[in-house]
Design brief:
Elements lengths: L8 H24 L3 H14 L1 H8 L6 H24 L3 H27 L7 H33 L10 H38 L3
Helix pairs in contact: 1-2, 1-4, 2-4, 4-5, 5-6, 5-7, 6-7
Amino acid sequence: MTLLPRPSLRTQRRLTRGMQLLLLGIIVYGVLFAQPKAITNGSIALIITFVPALLEKNYGVPLDPWLGLWITLAVFLHTMGSAGLYGAIGWWDHLTHAMSASLVAGIGYTFARGVELHSDRIHIPRQYAFGFILIVVMAFGVIWELFEFGLDLAAESTGIAMPLSQHGLDDTVRDMIFNTVGAILVATFGQVHLSGVAESVRESLLGDE
């Protein structure tokens, strides 16, 4: 397992506050120019950015600076994309897919590891954890692409614009590739950073036997 150098708590807070201010700016823009999509996306993302601090303060879930920035950056990038960067920057969609996939991989591994710690009947050897994370992310990616395909069908039949859509087979394949990139990053670096979180999940949600 590889341990990333940790940013200081002060650096984390500065970066988080900067992203929160930009999200607040998107919400204000939506209010001033009657853009409900900007208001909705900005508000949801802003609320999610406070989740790491709430988990640590109210539930005792140990989140090091990397994890707090990870969650905040994932929702921030998606919101900025919805605000216009998806159309303006071709690779922005791939970046958000990699970040979202890494977040899904982290959540999947954390809960699986928490259940493993809780039960003597379940054991995931560390040499197989890499493959497990990849399978979780690839499965989620397939479900997500089917969801986008369903939205396309709904848009065609109803004439209502949907917040998500597919842009052809090439785009779908690229999305899956960047999903895999996100999963590989978590498989390489995430296990050591998520071990404390998994312990806390076991204790707070599953109980301690």
